[in-house]
């Protein structure tokens, strides 16, 4: 896409496992415009978080990344160690799923934010602390001056998540990768964090890749949705197109499994049968085939290609080829 700040083409991620390999991400294509939010939606194990970590080059040495990742017109997979240090935090930042684990427990939160600013901008400690104070005020942490001196365990889950957002924005990145940042939060705090991210996006012009397994959260935050299953994007399009005219059986199953306001006490959620595939021995053809109510023998012949439903809306299903 013209003007895209993020361009991911045919991304693959393999992990060594014994004498073989496991392909956790299979040919992912993703583009992102400045100020746009794309939600990666899918069950645990579908490859969402691995995709984000590949974009940050934060995967273990046992992994092998293939394809092409360009962010802000730079080839991320070709960056040296020194260039990666400048890239992380400055060009792209990440909000991790569990801020309680992402923060170092033996250092004060304010010191960790100040260290990031000093490392990237070379400013004084006093100026870095002032940046942290401004960010804490911006993410609406009460008594920000006092909270800067808190250790991570002295903050509530919602406050730690706000502090993690402040840390991610400390060096004014252009792209924010958010790995299920609201999963561990209660509903009220979850809404507050989503509203905060949208407000900060408008202010800073951030491009955001937002990982979630909750369709409701994706609808609230995203401009476009990419549904992942077994390492592949099986459907993608605008939020309205994916929600209102879902074309892949997996997307339809996710939508059917949602609760709604008109459900009675005797109504039951519709579950997707079966379990996600074992990526060390994936099924032939369409990976969703063994769980699909519309499965036919030809589904096992080959991985279905991506088919255009309408402009900007695509899905991978053999029935769409007819």
Protein traits:
322 residues, alpha/beta, Rossmann fold, 4-stranded antiparallel β-sheet, 8-stranded mixed β-sheet
Give the secondary structure arrangement, pairings included.
Elements (H helix, E strand, L loop, with lengths): L5 E12 L2 E13 L4 E5 L6 H9 L6 E9 L2 E2 L5 H10 L1 E4 L3 H4 L6 H13 L3 H14 L5 H4 L9 H12 L6 E5 L7 H18 L2 E6 L2 H7 L2 E6 L2 E7 H6 L4 H8 L49 E5 L2 E4 L6
Parallel strand pairs: 3-8, 3-9, 6-7, 7-8
Antiparallel strand pairs: 1-2, 1-4, 4-5, 9-10, 10-12, 11-12
Helix pairs in contact: 4-5, 5-7, 7-8
Can you characterise this structure?
- This protein is an alpha/beta fold and 322 residues long.
- The protein folds into 2 domains: 32-61 and 78-91 and 173-259 and 270-322, P-loop containing nucleotide triphosphate hydrolases (Rossmann fold), CATH 3.40.50.300; 100-172, no CATH class.
- It contains 11 helices and 12 strands.
- The strands form 2 sheets. It has an 8-stranded mixed sheet with strand order 6-7-8-3-9-10-12-11, sandwiched between helices. A 4-stranded antiparallel sheet has the order 2-1-4-5.
- A hairpin with a 2-residue loop joins strand 11 and strand 12.
- The protein is globular.
- The chain starts with 5 loop residues before the first strand and ends in a 6-residue tail after the last strand.
